[in-house]
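Fig. S4 source data, part A: sequence.
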Amino acid sequence: MTSQENPAAERFRRLHSEGLLVLPNAWDAGSARLIESLGAKAIATTSAGVAWSHGYPDGDTLPLPLLRATVADIARAARVPVSADVEGGYSSDPAAVGATVAAVIEAGAVGINIEDGSGATDLLCAKLERAKNAGERLGVNLFVNARTDVFLRGLAAKERRVEETLARAERYRSAGADGIFVPGLADPGEIRAVAQGSPLPLNVMAWGGLPSAAELEALGVRRLSAGAGIVQAAYARTRRLAAAFLERGASDAVASESKTYPEINALLAERL
């Protein structure tokens, strides 16, 4: 099979040129199936949510067999394209990153997110090349979304952060990136400048003060991600309900704020 013959990969790629792709990130097969049932056109994972669901902190600590198993479970449960957040690739060795990317492709992913963090741009470029090579070997036209943390980590002075982001976007595009993800980018003027300054589809993340979806699309954004926002809200709600239950056995709140057992069971039974 050639890369052009993988329908899910090509569908995921097209979604970045058909308006604004909105992705409420999932962290396991159940959340992925629920999100899909609400009309999501694709499923993207949140690395933080996946790590937390297995009892690990975010930050390249998740054992790779658990990452692969999670992607495989999500790909089984969902019928839409799946993109996996592989953090920094779980290694500083580009060859090892290539092997990791190959594993998530074999598990069913047709896209990945991979980030520079505070690392050198040259290192991410080498990882991007290995990631694209992995897709080519496996016959998948892998959509590689390169995340740069210039805004998120304050890697450049405020007056230079757009310039630095665009410089990195060009480096990453030359290394094979298909999209650029800039978490922390929220100002409309800066969003427009980044969108217009790079040929790569721009991905932004849910953020306080972020413009509406319609405004983002008009500014040139092609992908909007929830990041870890939804799973963080789920943890906050779990904490609130569990604390009330432990403190006073508050059964009514547990019952009234829950999706029904038959609804959840039926949703997941559809994929058996």
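Fig. S4 source data, part B ends here. The chain has a mean pLDDT of 96.
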